[in-house]
Amino acid sequence: MFDIEIKHFCPICGCYEPENQFSIGEICPCCGNEIGCDDDIEKPNINQEQYFQMIQISIDSYENGKEVPNHVKQFLENAKYSEDEAWEILRNKWIEKGCPWKYNFKGERPENWGIELAKLQLLNIGIKLDAINCVHFRQD
Ligand SMILES: [Zn+2]
């Protein structure tokens, strides 16, 4: 889906990027998350032994030119949070920290960055942030 969909907004913090940069491997200057990496989150209650067995089966299948068995595919899919779930987890973490603007290499950070701008930015992706969630907001 990343290949065809043009993402102007970070799916985590709603940061606007005019150059379509929110695809795999890109780091959001605002929330600092790398799409396709930081949002690759394993569920906490997964049986690790079984998980690595399943990974081994899928590697063996690839190496032998065979189709990965469906139950293995399904297990591995269920072992991770979906994109939407992972984005929500990362977004909540970012909000808990007070929506800090992480990187400013190219002067991306708006001078007056603060909770009000963060709230507006989140509206880009349809998230309405209650001020109560952001009591710890810091400028740095
Ligand atoms: Zn972001």
Radius of gyration of CA atoms, rounded to a whole number: 18 Å
Query: What separation lies between the terminal Cα atoms?
Result: 34 Å
Low-confidence stretches: 134-140
Largest sheet: none
**Cofactors, ions and other ligands in the entry:** zinc ion
Return the structural class.
mainly alpha
Average per-residue pLDDT, rounded, comes to 86
Give the strand content: under 5%
Element pattern in H and E: HHHH
Short summary:
This protein is mainly alpha-helical and 140 residues long. The chain has four helices and no strands.
What would you note in describing this structure?
By secondary structure, this protein is an all-alpha fold. The chain has two domains: 1-41 and 83-140, no CATH class; 48-79. It contains four helices and no strands. The chain has helices at 48-63, 70-79, 83-96, 115-123. The two termini are 34 Å apart. The model is unreliable at 134-140 (pLDDT under 50). The structure holds zinc ion. Zinc ion binds at residues 10, 12-13, 15, 28, 30-31, 33. This is Cysteine-rich CPCC domain-containing protein. It comes from Clostridium aestuarii.
Key attributes of the depicted protein:
single chain; 140 residues; mainly alpha; 4 helices; binds zinc ion
Topology:
Layout: H1 48-63, H2 70-79, H3 83-96, H4 115-123
